[in-house]
Amino acid sequence: MLIVDDDQQTREEFCEFLSSVGYFCLTATDGAEALQTLARRPTIGIVLIDVAMPTIDGMSLLTELGIRFMPHRPLVPIVVTGTPKVETVIAAMRAGAMDFLAKPVAPRDLLTSLRLASNKWLMMNSHFRMLALLEGSADIGSRSVTADEKAFGAGTLSRDDLIGFVRSLIKMRHRRNDIFKSTKFSDPSWDILLDLTSASLEGRDVPAISTSAAAGVPLTTALRYVKNLTDDGIIRRWEDPDDKRRSLVRLDNDAFECMVDFLSRAHALLTAPPSPSR
């Protein structure tokens, strides 16, 4: 994460505390330095921004983030100020801030805000990855197949082979979670997509509750991911005609074709014979 504040003591205090609880921190002394750092470090996901800074203040920095970075990558800003005013809070939220903290910031409040920001970043990251998948699959479909792809049999998997491959991927992800016991690798949207791809290949419609369980996160969190994917048109959701108390979900046809294309090519790459040494 990136801490942007013109006060050196504040930067050091934030960094010391956040490092002690496992966050990796970078700092910037003003908005201009922050923009340079964000341009160089695309992996930064959370930005803690002080409002009162010289040259480019916090509100101007928020505006720049919204124009230059946030449309293209997951980025979650949190605003901090020593003089909180209602109009400033409203302006910050409208400019894309996820939260607004008043100095002096209590450690508990900061950790709560960062936890929410991390969850939001995970959801945004999954959204961007899915868009990239859909766009990439469309690009692949519009070009000619290379000789290597023909040799590897891209897109020629049988339905049963593809079902087996998807099940293996799901088992591998579960095994990884069992080993590392960590949420740092969680990617609920992708787990949901794998589960629904398997169901579509088998001709099954899945209850929303059931596919949420595949995400490996709390049910309420998983259902938010299902809603986001539904809102994006990647998942179709409707009321179960046999049980009005639940809803069913299935991958949209275009999303299913993208997943099949992607997984077929992934299988081809993973099973390709090693290239001869030169």
The main sheet orders its strands as 2-1-3-4-5
The overall number of domains is 2
Q: So how many helices?
A: 11
Unreliable residue runs: 137-155
Helical content band = 55-70%
Query: Taking all residues together, what is the mean pLDDT?
Result: 80
Shape: elongated
How many β-strands, per DSSP? 8
CATH homologous superfamily of the largest domain - what is it? Winged helix-like DNA-binding domain superfamily/Winged helix DNA-binding domain
Characteristic terms for this protein:
278 residues, alpha/beta, Rossmann fold, Arc Repressor Mutant, subunit A, 11 helices, 57% helix, elongated
Short description:
By secondary structure, the protein is an alpha/beta fold. The chain is built from eleven helices and eight strands. It has two domains: 2-119, 3-Layer(aba) Sandwich (Rossmann fold); 144-271, Arc Repressor Mutant, subunit A (Orthogonal Bundle).
Account of the 3D structure:
It is built from eleven helices and eight strands. A hairpin with a 7-residue loop joins strand 7 (235-239) and strand 8. Helices cover 57% and strands 12% of the residues. By secondary structure, the protein is an alpha/beta fold. Residues 137-155 have low confidence and may be disordered. Helix 2 (31-40) packs parallel to helix 3 (58-68), helix 5 (107-142) packs across helix 11 and helix 7 runs antiparallel to helix 8 (188-201).
